[in-house]
Design goal:
With 351 residues, the protein is an alpha+beta fold. It is 41% helix and 19% strand. It has 2 domains: 96 residues; 234 residues, Endonuclease/exonuclease/phosphatase (Deoxyribonuclease I, Chain A, 4-Layer Sandwich), CATH 3.60.10.10.
């Protein structure tokens, strides 16, 4: 053996050992990073440990993509076991994202109910634009959250809405906690109060629930409730909003779900489909979110491009109600939220 051959032979094991250490380091780094995303998401969206972790959970989609890329990278490095583990983490993220969605179906003539939900912004001075969006929606049931003075004024002076929506709940004053309900079908209004909130602002003591007396072709009576817990701009507002949501959940569970009627909840949860509040509504009430899993479009802030918005406004339904279509209305309404219009196929009336 020549001297050069001996040196090369001795260097090969060292290069192999160095490459092995690099692969091991990369393997651990990729696996730990992927696992950390799942743990952080569980701490935020699963048990609401932290306001910031919950906000981070709103980016579950990028987490899935990141884990998938990491798995492909590990596979390219021939770290197969690590690639498999990271792929399983990505799959766990995806299944978690996909859970709690209402079933999809084709529209059925005579059994399809169109619902519009819209946070019109409590300081909106363009009530005419809000009313125009309502008119164009051709919805059977409309819920307007945060109805401003301008919106209420335009609703009262509109000549067309008395015939289209003869049954309604319209507050006297424009305030940010107002809720407007417009219905083609007769309604019975109920206001449920909770004394635990008497020391807080009076408007948080209740959330209105309406029984809609729909025709038998739509399955008959169903319940319509509205939710709008405080936005999580700070940790304290996030905690306050979560407490408010718990009170509303208790009211709906104790007084309404026991009636056995289908329920439709129009909501601005101030939370995306992968954040804590959405999961809490699903676990506590069994309500399913109507937004499709792969619909890359949000509702807030409305001025942003469609794919750069958060889907914080939506319709939730009990099982048995299916979704025929879900769309965000692209219109200038003067609000920082975009309206959502959902076509729901109602269950047949039980005999």
């Amino acid at each position: 053996m020549t001297g050069r051959a001996a040196v090369t032979s001795a260097a090969d094991p060292r290069r192999h050992g160095r490459w092995h250490r690099i692969r091991l380091t990369l393997s651990l780094a990729l696996l730990v990073t992927a696992l950390t995303t799942l743990i952080l998401r569980f701490l935020g969206a699963g048990i609401a440990l932290s306001w910031r972790l919950d906000l981070l959970s709103g980016f579950a989609g990028p987490m899935v993509v990141g884990c998938a890329i990491a798995a492909i990278f590990a596979l390219a490095l021939r770290i197969r076991r690590t690639a498999l583990l990271i792929a399983l983490i990505a799959l766990t993220h995806f299944i978690w994202m996909a859970s709690g969605r209402a079933a999809r179906t084709a529209p059925i003539e005579g059994r399809t109910l169109r619902v519009m939900t819209f946070n019109s912004l409590g300081i909106n001075t363009h009530g005419d634009k809000v009313v125009a969006a309502i008119r164009q929606s051709d919805a059977d049931l409309v819920c307007i959250l945060e109805a401003s003075w301008s919106t209420l004024h335009e609703l009262r002076r509109a000549s067309w809405d008395d015939e289209r929506y003869p049954h309604r709940v319209v507050p006297e004053e424009g305030k940010e906690w107002n809720i407007v309900v417009l219905s083609k079908f007769p309604i019975t209004v109920d206001e449920s109060r909770d004394s635990r909130w008497d020391l807080w602002w009076d408007f948080y003591n209740y959330r209105r629930v309406v029984t809609v007396h729909a025709p038998e072709s739509l399955g008959g009576d169903f319940l319509h409730a509205m939710l709008i817990p405080s936005s999580p701009r700070t940790a304290k507002r996030w905690e306050f909003g979560n407490d408010l949501l718990e009170t509303n959940i208790q009211i709906l569970r104790d007084y309404y779900l026991s009636r056995g009627l289908p329920m439709i909840v129009t909501a601005d949860l101030n939370a995306s489909p992968t954040m804590y509040r959405t999961g809490r509504v699903r676990r506590a009430l069994g309500l399913l979110r109507c937004k499709p899993l792969l619909g890359v479009v949000g509702t807030w802030p409305a001025d942003n491009p469609r794919w750069k918005r958060f889907a914080i406004d939506d319709v939730f339904v009990t099982s048995g109600i299916k979704v025929a279509s879900w769309q965000v209305v692209e219109a200038d309404t003067g609000s920082d939220h975009a309206p959502v219009v959902v076509d729901l196929v109602m269950p047949e009336k039980r005999r």
